[in-house]
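Attaching the record inline, Q. Sequence:
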Amino acid sequence: MGRFYDTNALLDLSYKLNKLDKFYVSSITLTELENIKTNRNKTEDIKYKARYISRILRDNPKIYECIIVQTKHYELLEELELDNSNDNLIMACAKLLNDDIVFITSDICCYNIGKKIFNLNVEILKDEFDEDYKGYIVKQFNDNELAEFYQYELNKNSYNLLLNQYLLIKDKENKYIDAYRWNGEKLIQINSKSMNSLTLGNVKPLDKFQMCVLDSFQNNQITMVKGKAGSGKSYLSMGFLFHQLEKNKIDKVIIFTNPIATKGAAKLGYYPGSKNEKLCDSNIGNFLASKLGDKGAIQIYLQSEKIILLPLSDIRGYDTSGMRAGIYITEAQNMNLELMKLALQRIGQDCICIIDGDYNTQVDDASYSGLNNGMRRLSEVFKGESLYGEVELSNIYRSEIAKIAQKM
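Structure, as predicted:
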């Protein structure tokens, strides 16, 4: 069964276009892509996607077939009493191609018109990340099942775990009692203890999920920590990085940040001062002050270059090789595919990396959402790699107020 993509679906699939089976597009779509590339009203992200798709189609002419709009397509619209809009012409091309076609769109209006008026076999483009990878699976056992698990299951992968994925065990009373990590050969029991930091104090895991986070920090070069506000993402990340810094396991902490305004909040405009002064007056400065005590403490670390703040706008060409650094990409939900790719390509072999964020509820710019979110794509690409771990935190510990506010 052939697949026919409209323009918006093609834009949403831009990152994997050259991996699709052969597909169809309308000549209208090629024209729209050309117009998008130079349209001043389109975002840079959309314009980049249009340029990228055009290059892929140019370099891979065998992956698609273009259906040229002809008189018969206009006649079909006239017959259906529809106007000659681009969307309608694209659907007309799909309709007159053959009956063995699935029309793919990201637009709910095109979906409805295609299904009800054109009588097409239509699919709305599915968000392939709907079933989020959490970095673990949870299994509940009764007493007999638990005994069998400990006796027979520790040396085999009965639950199809990916490399470095965790298995969390619940007892018959629904309490979390154990945690394991699959290392490719067997299940390794997790028993991550607290870490003492001169700067941040005793960093103690409060549940099995947080134990898995600390275990991943200790065993993987790169870890992504997901979770809602107040779940402990930055508490654990900063605690581990400062513990490593104080133990001379790393020489500095480099924080990659994308200082955009919180969604729905007014922008304050120009901040005076140097790069560090401007960043300290933004969300990253508030974040560090909440962890280190005040902005005076931040300045001490900045002046000694034990902490380096690097906005993503300055990241191109940066290379952390030889720095023996802990790279911390915070609020990473505010990164698209290209920004995340660019950030990861800066990381040297002698560095570790922690990425945190919440792309489900805390994305502050629509251009970073959905299929274009860098965190989501990173999870899709890196999960199962030997150097990568990922954990989604489930519980909110900041305060009872923060826990209740999550319901808003």
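Residues 44-59 form the longest helix (16 residues). The first strand starts at residue 2 and ends at 5.

More tomorrow.
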